[in-house]
Amino acid sequence: MANVATVGSDSVSIEQSRVHVAVALSDRGRLEPLRVQVPIQLECSRGAGSSLKFFLTANQRTDRRLRITPNISDVEFELEINGRVWRRGWLRDLNTPEFCSVDLDSWGRMNDDAVQLQIVLSGKLSTTASDPEWLAIEYPHCQ
């Protein structure tokens, strides 16, 4: 399922399917920094296990063979789990997908069946970058 949401005058793409959630910023004409918060709810029953596993990826991959170089935008990300910041950093530092494992018992749950995530992207997009800036949570599952 893919959809495009407009927040003010900023173009924000949100794509969600069974295997991933991605948030992209694509408004390059702005001079001031922007900030976008996207809440996500994952079903994760207690019977499925007490840890959430996923890959955290961004468009900042570098591959010399394919001549892929990352954008040079100053975009910071935060990943919140159940209302607390779990990971914070710069998109440009995510050169390879990171495997993440979160112990849900130590991070708490809002209820027995759901884990509340929130992706926050903030900063200024490069005017020379050809692609949008994006962050994705891929293959989330409880174990």
Describe the structure.
The chain has 143 residues and is mostly beta strands. Helix content is 3%, strand content 55%. The strands form two sheets. Strands 1-2-3-10-5-8 form a six-stranded antiparallel β-sheet. The longest helix has 4 residues, at 104-107. The protein is elongated.
Q: Note poorly predicted spans.
A: 1-9
Q: What is the share of helical residues?
A: under 10%
Helix and strand run = EEEEEEEEHEE
**Radius of gyration from the CA trace?**
16 Å
Q: What is the total tally of β strands?
A: 10
3D shape:
elongated
CA-to-CA gap between the ends? 25 Å
The computed structural class is mainly beta
Which strands sit side by side, in order, in the main sheet? Answer: 1-2-3-10-5-8
| Separate helix tally | 1
Summed over residues and divided by their number, the pLDDT gives a mean of 73
Strand content: over 45%
Helices and strands in order:
Layout: E1 2-7, E2 10-16, E3 20-25, E4 34-43, E5 51-58, E6 74-81, E7 84-90, E8 98-103, H1 104-107, E9 114-124, E10 133-142
Antiparallel strand pairs: 1-2, 2-3, 3-10, 4-9, 5-8, 5-10, 6-7, 6-9
What's this model, at a glance?
This protein has 143 residues and is mainly β.
Features:
single chain, 143 residues, mainly beta, 6-stranded antiparallel beta sheet, 4-stranded antiparallel beta sheet, 1 helix, 3% helix
